[in-house]
Every structure is written in C-alpha cells, then in structure tokens.
Amino acid sequence: MSLTNQPTRSDVAAIIDHTLLKPETTPDAVTALVADAVEMGVCSVCVSPNQLPVPHPSSLRIAAVCGFPSGAHRSAVKALEASRACQAGADEIDMVIDLAFPQTGRYELTESEIAEVRHAVPDATLKVIIESAVLDDDQIVEVCHAAERAGADFVKTSTGFHPAGGASVHAVRLMRDVVGDRLGVKASGGIRDSEAALAMIAAGATRLGVSSTRAILAGLPG
C-alpha cells in the first residue's frame, strides 16, 4: 500500500496497532479492544503479555510488549517473555531496549539484546522501541543500526509511558533516513488526532501505535 498521496481512513486503519497497555487493563477491556479493532479495520491490537491468549478473528494480528515499559530487564528475561508471548498467540513483539546501553555508548549490547529476542521469536514481527525522546540524534542513529544488524523488522519511537515524551516528526524522519526501506518505522506515543497521525506518516512511519484510534480515523476522509 502506498501512502504517498493523502491517506484515506482505511489506509491509515490498515497500519494502526490499536493499543491498550494500562496496567489496570481487564480481560473485558481487551475483549472490547478487539471488537473495536475489528470494526475499525486496523492491523493489530497491542496488549500486555498477561492478557494473552486473546480470542480474535484471523484477520487481526496480535502484538505483545516485552521488557515494558522501562526496558531495564536482562536480555534473557526479555527473550523468555517474548517466546512465551508467541506461544500464547502473539504474532508481533514490541520490545523495549535497555536505555543505559546507548546512553553509555555500548551499542554492541543493544545489538546483542535485540538479537537474543530475535533468536527467541524467529517467526514473529519484531519491533524495537528505542524511546527516541530520551536519546540524541547520534544515539538514535546508532540504535537503529544496531536494530537492523540484529534482525529487527521495525524500529519504534516510544512506549508512550516515558516522561521525556513520545513520538516526534523529527525522530520518525531520522529513523526512516537511517533504515531506508529495509525496516519499518513505528510511531507511537502521544498521537491522538488525525493531524498528528498524518504528520508521522509523511515523515516515514509505516505503522502507528495509538489508543485514540477512533478519534484519529474520524478526522480522515473515507
């Protein structure tokens, strides 16, 4: 699907991960999330691993987070969490990196932890959350390179839980420049209306992680 022209409501829905990651989320809330996702025609729902398995139609993908939201977990723990999530029905894994590694220039450790998760879930779509609002441009570039070397499918801006902030057009554009067409770029965190969503897509995002899906789609042409 090309998003070079003005995207329609269905275009944008097709690249949305309809997300519910509040720690107080109940199974009934996840059931409602899935129903809304099917109605709106989105790509996937993104949930915490404790909510798996999630009953869903085959047309809807299931994403689960890993090492969320801090990323301050041993890589072996992240790998096990990702593996268990896939065994319970996740098609996609959104893992959070250990932010201490890029902030101290240890990009080989970032690559190593991503590679360990990649090895644990070889058939899943792997998205790497880099918490771009915390990193400077040089660190974003190096983390994106590490993610690509480690076999990730996407680099992703944010958890949406860090006080430094969520996605920015600048970060998405930079990430796209680094990975080219080889990896996807997921914009997530603070995208609450159609204007913000379209700006992220124009900057190079090929997936959006949002909880305000209905409001975003309502502002787009059919």
TrEMBL record:
Write out the annotated subcellular location.
Answer: Cytoplasm
**Taking the first listed entry, what is the main subcellular location of this protein, grouped into a coarse class?**
cytoplasm
From the UniProt record, list the reaction(s) this protein catalyses: 2-deoxy-D-ribose 5-phosphate = D-glyceraldehyde 3-phosphate + acetaldehyde
Which E.C. number(s) belong to this protein? 4.1.2.4
Q: Name one GO molecular function term.
A: deoxyribose-phosphate aldolase activity
- List keywords of the entry alphabetically: Cytoplasm, Lyase, Schiff base
InterPro entries, alphabetized: Aldolase_TIM, DeoC, DeoC/FbaB/LacD_aldolase, DeoC_typeI
SMART domains on file = DeoC (SM01133)
Which residue spans traverse the membrane?
none
Question: Which is an annotated Pfam family here?
Answer: DeoC
Q: Where is the active site?
A: 94 (proton donor/acceptor), 156 (schiff-base intermediate with acetaldehyde), 186 (proton donor/acceptor)
Which pathway?
Answer: Carbohydrate degradation; 2-deoxy-D-ribose 1-phosphate degradation; D-glyceraldehyde 3-phosphate and acetaldehyde from 2-deoxy-alpha-D-ribose 1-phosphate: step 2/2
Q: Which family does it belong to?
A: Belongs to the DeoC/FbaB aldolase family. DeoC type 1 subfamily.
Physiological role: Catalyzes a reversible aldol reaction between acetaldehyde and D-glyceraldehyde 3-phosphate to generate 2-deoxy-D-ribose 5-phosphate.
HAMAP family in UniProt: DeoC_type1
Instruction: Please give the name of this protein.
Output: Deoxyribose-phosphate aldolase
Please name the gene that encodes this protein.
deoC
